[in-house]
């Protein structure tokens, strides 16, 4: 084979691959997936217990927020429970004690999580790998003890009987279906924001930092600022998920700020596929389903979930969705 | 005369826990030249390079860029001042496409790099320039491939395209020809020569022969100190340089 024909073959392959990866095909597939997903989600409460699906949605948003950080910025936080649980407390308190409407309660919860995110981020962002994880864990433990000691959090009891209220003065959230669609709207908003952030000029820089931080620095990017913004975005959305959960279950408790919650979100994200947009949703759905199913049996829940996790990590390291995507032809990793 | 010096190191010294990796190095890079820093393994080339690009902080000494002291400046800042480096181990973003690799370098001047609410399509205006740069290094057929899929020599070419995207005044290349096959070396050397027409290049290399016809000035380092400096003809005849190279078995011929 001559060099010329080799070059032609290479060009042909390149063109073919480029066509497969063309933006149009990708957009069409994404749009189709989005419509199918939304239809399923809209019909879900008629087939399943609405509170169960709402729980899945809250955790799915939580996992997506976490994934924005680990999957697209390469930062492993082990303190995301602080944002999730912290926001749950703030939302619950604002709605129950201050009598604020649910939208303001959620807003305050999210803002509180964002503030915590700035604080955690400012302290931890210069550290790498395990040190970053340990600092975020330590900080979130401080939030846990504050939740245990402070008066407004209700200690061991948490904040119970949180009223769901009337959203925007129009939608009565005590109606299960109205509540459900409100949660779905929150989830779609959060998911869309993450999707946008990943496919934005900012997302490009973030991916470059994840891929090769020294190189990104040498191109003139002050990488710490980008990582901090990613951290705050992730914390805020984790807070939005936590606040929503407080409204759904009418409860904010220590479970939400415990370190196990930080571990659970790692599990969901890794199971579903870190660095993929849909993976964390699948992972959250799987873990929540298993937990509810196993709770009705006499099996020890953590042991079974732990075993599943081990099997998943051994068999498909990219997670469920990551593994499927890797096997599709012409797909970017 | 001093106007002609774009990058200068004065008494540059770096100690690692008592071990002196670089000792009292004085280096002057003239504007518009190709300057090579060579030496056998462990001579301190990479340390000098990392000091100049601010990835390491010197124990003593001073670094001046266009007469301005940059000894304490952060690495991202000097990139903004027009001093851009490459890396010894090929520095691409493996899971971005070739086009995206170059575009990341181009997008900063847009000032939207923190805009997480904007669409990626706002970056499409950069594609034409990116594709030109990719064409310059003969990577056009691979523009939509992931950088990870490129063979080694092509990754180095992509790296140069990415560096050029910043239109730097000074390009610092860390062993740009290392690990390349003969056919790639010629092409890349020609490319370096071409891009150096309008800028200054400081490159680190292992071998004297590789940089012989490429550089205007060659500085030879040994054990952290400057052994000789000058054009190839002068340096290659220096008795100490010949000895240093004989000693390591590197030197002329081994590409």
What's the layout of helices and strands?
The complex is a heterodimer of chains A (333) and B (255).
Chain A: H1 3-20, H2 23-47, H3 50-72, H4 80-96, H5 102-124, H6 129-149, E1 159-160, E2 166-167, E3 171-172, H7 176-198, H8 201-211, H9 213-218, H10 223-249, E4 251-252, H11 254-257, H12 259-272, H13 279-295, H14 301-315, H15 319-327
Antiparallel strand pairs in A: 1-4, 2-3
Chain B: E1 5-16, E2 19-30, E3 34-38, H1 45-52, E4 60-65, E5 68-69, H2 75-80, E6 83-85, H3 98-107, H4 127-136, H5 152-165, E7 170-174, H6 182-195, E8 200-205, H7 208-211, E9 217-222, E10 225-230, H8 232-237, H9 239-248
**Could you give the distance between the termini of chain B?**
35 Å
Task: Enumerate the strands of the largest sheet of chain B in spatial order, edge to edge or round the barrel.
Answer: 6-7-8-3-9-10
| The CATH topology of chain B | Rossmann fold
Question: Average pLDDT value of chain B?
Answer: 83
Shape of chain B: globular
The helix/strand series of chain B, from N terminus to C terminus, equals EEEHEEHEHHHEHEHEEHH
The CATH superfamily of chain B is known as P-loop containing nucleotide triphosphate hydrolases
Strand content of chain B: 15-25%
Rg over CA atoms of chain A: 21 Å
% residues in beta strands of chain A: under 5%
What can you see in these coordinates?
The complex is a heterodimer of chains A (333) and B (255). With 333 residues, chain A is mostly helical. Chain A has helices spanning 3-20, 23-47, 50-72, 80-96, 102-124, 129-149, 176-198, 201-211, 213-218, 223-249, 254-257, 259-272, 279-295, 301-315, 319-327; strands at residues 159-160, 166-167, 171-172, 251-252. Chain A has a domain at 48-259. Chain A is 76% helix and 2% strand. In chain A, the strands form two sheets. A two-stranded antiparallel sheet of chain A has the order 1-4. A two-stranded antiparallel ribbon of chain A has the order 2-3. The longest helix of chain A is centred in the last third of the chain and has 27 residues, at 223-249. Chain A is globular. Chain B has 255 residues and is α/β, with parallel strands linked by helices. In chain B, the strands form two sheets. A six-stranded mixed sheet of chain B has the order 6-7-8-3-9-10, with helices on both faces. In chain B, strands 2-1-4-5 form a four-stranded antiparallel sheet, covered by helices on one side. The longest helix of chain B is centred in the middle third of the chain and has 14 residues, at 152-165. Chain B is globular. The model of chain B is unreliable at 248-255 (pLDDT under 50). Chains A and B meet through helix 1, helix 7, helix 8, helix 9 and helix 10 of A and helix 2 and helix 3 of B.
